């Protein structure tokens, strides 16, 4: 299927539904809940889970249906921390000898893996509305225009 992914109904409501398309009245509404972290998460992943789940619940966007996406977000974050340690310990490049005896400088594979993990991390952050650009598309007052308090005097 080509084109943009459909925006969830709750986001259409808070962004004001600028396209004025009909809202899906039968969209599933999972219960808002902080799910328990999976036991297989690393210590870094569990720490991220604790911080992110509280933050996302406070924003009102975490439901039972988000557990797998939150798990992946925490996994990728833990992967980024590990890859950063690898790059710091081994450097961004390494030297190797060719069959002819020449010395080549090659990129540390952890650098490319870190860049890939960073892209995946950003995409999960956007899914949860955890970047400034993603949040800028959401209006807390449900997309309704607030009444200007000065209208009673200058209306």
Strand order of the largest sheet: 1-2
Order of helices and strands: HHHEEHHH
Roughly how many Å apart are the termini? 48 Å
* Low confidence ranges: none
The total tally of domains equals: 1
Q: Any idea what the radius of gyration is?
A: 22 Å
Number of helices: 6
Strand content: 5-15%
Largest sheet: 2 strands, antiparallel
Helix content: 40-55%
Structural class: mainly alpha
Give the tally of β-strands: 2
Shape: elongated
**Overall pLDDT:** 84
What does this entry look like structurally?
With 155 residues, this protein is mostly helical. The protein has one domain. 48% of the residues lie in helices and 6% in strands. The chain contains 6 helices and 2 strands. It has a two-stranded antiparallel ribbon. The mean pLDDT is 84.
Which key phrases capture this entry?
elongated, two-stranded antiparallel sheet, 155 residues, mainly alpha, single chain, 48% helix
Strands, helices and their partners?
Blueprint: H1 9-15, H2 43-59, H3 67-90, E1 93-97, E2 103-107, H4 109-127, H5 132-135, H6 151-154
Antiparallel strand pairs: 1-2
Helix pairs in contact: 2-3, 3-4
Structure in a nutshell:
The chain is mostly helical and 155 residues long.
């Amino acid at each position: 299927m080509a084109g943009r992914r459909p925006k969830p109904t709750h986001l259409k409501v808070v962004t004001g539904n600028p396209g004025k398309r009909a809202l899906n009245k039968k969209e599933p509404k999972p219960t808002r809940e902080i799910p328990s972290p999976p036991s297989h998460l690393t210590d870094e992943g569990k720490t991220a889970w604790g911080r992110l789940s509280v933050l996302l619940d406070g924003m009102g966007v975490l439901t039972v249906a988000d557990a797998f996406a939150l798990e992946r977000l925490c996994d990728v974050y833990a992967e980024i921390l590990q890859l950063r340690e690898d790059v710091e310990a081994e450097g961004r490049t390494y030297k190797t000898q060719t069959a002819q005896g020449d010395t080549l400088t090659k990129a540390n594979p952890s650098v490319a893996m870190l860049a890939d993990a960073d892209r995946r991390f950003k995409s999960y952050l956007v899914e949860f509305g955890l970047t400034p650009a993603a949040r800028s598309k959401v209006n807390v007052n449900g997309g309704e225009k607030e009444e200007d308090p000065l209208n009673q005097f200058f209306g």
